[in-house]
Fold this protein.
Amino acid sequence: QVHLVESGGGLVQPGESLRLSCAASGSYFSLYTYTMGWYRQAPGNQRELVARIHSGGYTIYTDSVKGRFTISRDNAKNTLNLQMNNLKLEDTAVYYCNALEIPLPWGPGTQVTVSS
């Protein structure tokens, strides 16, 4: 089976940075062959797709994170990453990764808390 595990979250002050990673394991899933996305869910909100990267490298970001977040992947390590700079209070959420074409069971997510 394929499993997704997110890591890298933590507690930071506004303006600071975090780098999230998503590890995908399993014999039948290669992360780089799919469009991959980072999602987040804040209290009272639906899960929101904030960034995606297509197999060809094309990226799309939601307006609220554009210019601050960068999605990337390391094909050799089979990981998906999200560099988050200039974090704001409204970025506080649990962050998840997943494939868009063939969604997998959600991983545990990683908590990002931005507090002033």
Remarks:
- Strands lie at 3-7, 10-12, 18-25, 36-41, 48-53, 59-61, 69-74, 79-84, 93-99, 110-114.
